[in-house]
Specification:
With 645 residues, the protein is of the alpha/beta class. It contains 18 helices and 26 strands. The chain has a 5-stranded parallel β-sheet with strand order 4-3-5-6-7, with helices on both faces.
Length: 645
């Protein structure tokens, strides 16, 4: 079997070169080799001659005399051959003095034979040289495979002694720990990888106790001080007698990005759950406010009003107005608010805000608007966009009590790959980015993960409800946007809002149509469907007082039975229905009624517009919805607009 070392393969009948300047000795060696079945590669009298031969040919072993002709002796020649070629060398010499032996020991030949020698002695030395050469070749190949595996392993591998001093590590480890060896960045001990000495001591205790740690999550820090989370397999080699750790091997996988994504998912799920709760609360609260406003309106419409009572009623209505604003914030946070999105040009839209935003800021804060170089089209409710920007600017103002600079900007971005952000993942695509940057106090890292939660605030109780950023989150998310926050304590923050570029770039015309200020009575027949009995009673009475014929139903089933009794010529002019009801929502009810009465007009009431995505389609229009809470007068005005259209 052939022996391979590097690029050199020792054939079954090996070739041996002889370097000996005494011809009689050279012939004797040649005879021994021939009788032993070896091939003779050549006989050379000087170091220069064998070196010249090796430039054009090869041999499997060299027998080298120390004292030879030429300017190079055998030891110097052997050293050159060892540096340039992987060929085993046996030294043949009549010298055994200490100086010569010392020089040969530095060389490390495969054999050293003192002349004169026996035939068997030479043959034994040759065979042992080949065996040793084969073993070293296999060891070298094994080391090269290990080194290749070590260096090319995607995990960060390291080897440390029992005191934690690093012995070796691969390039993945260096990259993971942000070591730049060109700049002299190194880590001497694995202790420096841990956030503090307490964490390192806990690690050592576990290593001593378990010796093997499998798939353990460890929080480490890089050479630049950045925190990372790794999944680690750690193996400790301990002494058999005293149990002390002799060696620590580690295999680390950086899972920081994955953990961040998991945290974002948990945060998103938590926000979604709170949003559903907020939407449900808003629904019930808006129903109550509608009842309160309805009764107040009836008191105000009394023929003989008491002035003190009217004053009290005005106070109640003022409170309900503030409560209504609060529920709108809850709905915006829960992403349940009915929006009226259209194509707008962001630069022009935000330019209108500049004067108002300047009025919100004290003299020690400078405000700048930085529009994009080209037009930036968005598909969003313009009023909601303005509300978002106002909230962000007010927050930036509050974060800059000592003054500073606030910048509102617009630019375009192309995202090439999934990019983690504070409220989700920014997927590849073209985006319009709206940002608000301040030079204020920044946000504490422990606080930033909670800033979009409803009612979370670091401000005093008289400075805010904690719904501002929650509402910003809700509006941006409902508009298919993503928020990313970058902050440095003491140096300010920037809120980036990423909105997908719309496929079309045609600015939609704004609708400024408003209900008439005067509420006119009516004589039409109205089918009124509302599952809340108090709302149903108070609004039915208000409609009847205004001259309408009202057919009231407590649920969609009753409404359908009323229509069946009336027949095809039932004379229904308008269907007023709650949007969210058990078993069948308002949109489904209208669709069902239109089978019998194709041209019937409708108005939907909602305090929690679930299913609102069906509006602004060919079948349903957002102009045909009124949001709770509302007064009877507002309902009558909206009905009159629809009936007269």
């Amino acid at each position: 079997m052939a022996i391979t070392r590097g690029t050199h393969e020792i054939k079954p009948i090996p070739s041996i070169c002889i370097v000996e300047d005494e011809s009689i000795v050279a012939l004797d060696i040649k005879r021994i080799l021939t009788n032993g079945g070896y091939r003779i590669g050549g006989v050379f009298s000087s170091g220069e001659a064998i070196l010249e031969y090796l430039t054009r040919d090869y041999c499997d072993l060299i027998l080298m005399d120390i004292k030879i002709a030429g300017s190079l002796d055998g030891i110097e020649t052997a050293r050159i051959i060892s540096d340039q070629y992987q060929i085993p060398i046996i030294m043949l010499t009549a010298f055994a003095d200490d100086a010569t032996i010392a020089r040969v020991k530095e060389l490390g030949p495969f054999g050293y034979i003192i002349k004169p020698f026996e035939d068997r002695e030479l043959k034994t030395a040759i065979e042992m040289a080949f065996v040793r050469f084969s073993l070293e070749a296999r060891l070298q190949e094994s080391e090269e495979r290990y080194r290749l595996l070590f260096e090319e392993d995607l995990s960060g591998d390291f080897l440390a002694d029992g005191d934690g001093i690093l012995i070796d590590y691969n390039s993945a480890f260096a990259k993971m720990l942000e070591l730049d060896e060109h700049d002299g960045q190194t880590i001497e001990s694995i202790e420096t990888l841990f956030p503090d000495s307490i964490e390192y001591q806990r690690f050592l205790v576990r290593i001593y106790a378990e010796e093997v740690l499998k798939l353990q999550e460890l929080k480490l820090k890089t050479a630049n001080g950045r925190s990372i989370i790794v999944l680690a397999n750690i193996i400790a080699k301990t002494g058999k007698v005293n149990g002390e750790i002799l060696e620590i091997k580690g295999y680390l996988i950086d899972i920081t990005d994955r953990k961040n994504l998991e945290q974002q998912l948990r945060q998103s799920q938590k926000m979604e759950a709170i949003g559903r709760l907020a939407g449900g609360v808003a629904h019930d609260f808006n129903n109550l406010l509608t009842v309160i406003i309805g009764y107040c309106s009836m008191i105000q419409g009394d023929d003989q009003p008491n002035s003190d009572v009217i004053t009290h009623v005005d106070g109640i209505l003022d409170a309900t107005s503030k409560a209504s604003a609060l529920t709108r914030q809850l709905l915006a946070f829960s992403r349940q608010q009915l929006l009226n999105p259209r194509i707008i040009e962001a630069n022009a839209q935000l330019l209108h805000l500049e004067k108002m935003l300047n009025r919100l800021l004290p003299d020690n804060i400078s405000f700048y608007f930085s529009p994009s170089d080209e037009k930036a089209f968005l598909y969003i409710d313009p009023g909601q966009l303005e509300q978002v920007i106002i909230n962000l600017v007010v927050n930036a103002r509050d974060a800059s009590p000592d003054g500073g600079v606030i910048t509102l900007g617009v630019d375009s971005m192309r995202i090439q790959k999934d990019t983690p952000a504070s409220t989700g993942i920014i997927h590849p695509g073209d985006y319009i980015r709206v940002f608000v940057r301040d030079t204020g106090s920044g946000i504490d890292p422990l606080v930033i993960q909670h800033i979009f939660e409803p009612f979370f605030t670091t401000k005093p109780s008289d400075k805010g409800t904690g719904l501002g950023l929650a509402m910003v989150y809700g509006i941006v998310s409902q508009s298919n946007g993503i928020i990313d926050v970058q902050t440095t304590e003491g140096k300010g923050s920037v809120f980036f809002l990423y909105f997908p570029k719309p496929k079309t770039a045609v600015v939609s015309a704004a609708s400024d149509e408003k209900p008439p200020k005067t509420v006119y009575p009516g004589s039409e027949t109205v089918l009124f469907v509302e599952d809340d009995p108090k709302i149903r009673d108070i609004l039915r009475q208000s409609l009847m007082n205004s001259g309408y014929t009202v057919l009231a139903a407590a649920n969609p089933g009753e409404a359908i039975l009323i229509l069946e009794r009336l027949g095809e010529d039932g004379g229904i002019d308008l269907v007023v229905s709650d949007l969210l009801m058990p078993y069948m929502n308002g949109i489904e009810l209208i669709s069902r009624i239109r089978v019998q009465l194709p041209g019937v007009k409708y108005l939907l009431m909602s305090g929690f517009p679930e299913g609102h995505e069906k509006f602004n389609t060919n079948e349903f229009s957002a102009d045909h919805i009124i949001l709770k809470p509302f007064s009877p007068e507002e309902l009558l005005a909206k009905m009159r607009v629809i009936l007269d259209t």
